[in-house]
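Dig into what follows:
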Amino acid sequence: MKDAIAILAGGGPAPGINTVIGTIAKVFLQSGYRVIGLHEGYKSLFADEPKMEDINFEQADKIHKQGGSALQMSRYKPKDEEFRTDFFIKFNIKLLVTIGGDDTASTANRISKYLTEHNVKIQNIHVPKTIDNDLPLPEGSQTFGYESAKQEGVRIAQTVYEDARTSGNWFVVAAMGREAGHLAFGIGAACHYPMIIIPEMFNKTDITIRKIVKLIISAMIKRKLLGISYGAVMISEGVFHFMSDAEIESTGINFTYDEHGHPELGNVSKAHIFNILVQRELKRLGVVIKSRPVELGYELRCVQPVGFDLLYCALLGMGVKKLFDQGVTGCMVTSDPKGDIKPLYLKDVEDENGKVKPRLVNIDSEKARMVYSFNHQYIMEEDYEACSKIIENPAEFDFYKILNWEKIQMI
């Protein structure tokens, strides 16, 4: 039987998946391998009848520049007791390529250990994918899909900001990001939004709904002092990751609940939640500022990859073949800014539970400090006298007091 490789994609879509699949298929087909694509991710890998298809060169060549994924994806997480060796042995699999984020990588790590324990000699290489940019890659290396999603997010966010200027309104914009704020920060900074709120900002205080609302209003009032009646705020949905159910329920929003009794945030617009709360607080303060919600999420995930990701994903795909030929396994394939391919072993980036640790925004970096120091508008101590003509207690909306930060000093 011909030696084969299997490719699956887990989690949510990200621009460049097809570039990775197409490139891997091409280089392995040229080396005489059978290339099997698995639909429905890990759910299919251990199914009695896996949903699979052979990928030929023509198909690989056709899909490499397209958005979305030619292989249907799934967030299914198999339990350890579901692991089997049947698929790998039956189809003579020599390499399992997994494409995904931290959950997909963590499952790949568990499978790799399982196969080793059962004397099944199969290499496993993971391709790090997520628009959230939160996998622990070397400094300066992106996860694929991030740049394309950011570009589309910038296009939408700039249009929203122009609407704000044209109509004299404010927009409360929420961006995908799970527990990391890379996407919101990247889009917001590129568009010069006067306030970007990400979970990493709260490194010296707890994240609460009230603090976020205060930060939004801080920007609104400061812009008012500057004679500007419009603006936009960018918020990462990751802020909810660090809140308790009680804190989330304190919003007064009607949620549906999952089987564990947790609010199902995926069923509501995060921008809508914050916009309602901001409007409530503005009415309490007696300040008239109109605002509208905008959600940035599913619109970003399946766009056609930009040039950066087309090249980057092709390098990662070719890198899989390079590492495979070197006998490397149990790793993520990485490409540094020079294009050099290196393995990042999953065992080196897992926590005590075997889960891959997320990479958060470095809030102490010079880039973050410059953005928050030079490119934001918010109330500071020197604004109190002017602010007192608009609100009674300006200190309540002081950016640095809300976050418990020292005033940023740029050297």
In short: The radius of gyration is 23 Å. Residues 4-145+305-348 form a domain with the Rossmann fold fold (CATH 3.40.50.450).
